[in-house]
């Protein structure tokens, strides 16, 4: 549905050049929810705005629904943009218009007759759970209600693709969860393809089928969540299933194992203990529902050195279970107690 090839964008000014996109390639399948994670300045917003060419790249191609947008003249591009909805971090509602007026605005611009506009607005407000609020003004709404108006407005033209620009970062946790549940429901009911950018790992955990980490205008890792969880040394997998710093246990081997799919229901500890005649201690663990797949990460302690336990580690990996010996006192990527989080998640909430 969305195909991006070798996208490059450089901002120039005051004698300096900043590379926002450095050869980005991305494929989002039809009906998929794809999340792009990154800190402020990573290039996420530039990437998102390049999908509908609100930001025109210096080079590379953007294809949506089989149409190469980067090759279109401006008039045709305006028509194609109507197939792409967009929701914003700070809602971008017109304060002088009611809820119904905000949702109707894109329909007015495209010349939809009044009766059809009214029917479509009523349908959309019911879809996002705002029936009965048509006559309210933005100042009378909560943050979550404002974002629901923004979503309804983005859907007014019946788009097949929805772009989400940090849509939940201005909301409290409870409201965030309700908006994410709405997006997931719209994805299922309407078959919407959703590309979202975020600095919040919880967004990816809750609704994304695929994800990527963006850093300095490039993707450092990307893929389907199920594939990421099975990928040895994955930064994303370590962040999706965080365990924190590894303890220093002299005379023992600390092992982090990731299980998902069929392996999540496997009696792994019992198998390991029987097969290699070792006492296995569980030091910690976490279990999540990710992309409709139950997944978990366990931190185990085996007696003896890593060399002594080479057979057990090899067996785990050959079985298809990622097994890693973390650095003592380090997070999942060896970068210290915060692990990969410092590289992935911008705690400030600033947008790139």
From TrEMBL:
One of its GO terms (molecular function) is ATP binding. GO terms for biological process: amino acid transport. PROSITE patterns: ABC_TRANSPORTER_1 (PS00211), ABC_TRANSPORTER_2 (PS50893). Keywords: Amino-acid transport, ATP-binding, Cell membrane, Membrane, Nucleotide-binding, Translocase, Transport. It comes from the Bacteria. Residues 2-241 form the ABC transporter domain. InterPro entries: AAA+_ATPase (IPR003593), ABC_transporter-like_ATP-bd (IPR003439), ABC_transporter-like_CS (IPR017871), ACT-like_dom_sf (IPR045865), MetN_ABC (IPR041701), MetN_ABC_transporter-like (IPR050086), NIL_domain (IPR018449), P-loop_NTPase (IPR027417). The keyword Cell membrane applies. SUPFAM superfamilies: ACT-like, P-loop containing nucleoside triphosphate hydrolases. Residues 323-352 are annotated as: Disordered. This is D-methionine transport system ATP-binding protein. The lineage of its organism: Bacteria, Bacillati, Actinomycetota, Actinomycetes, Micromonosporales.
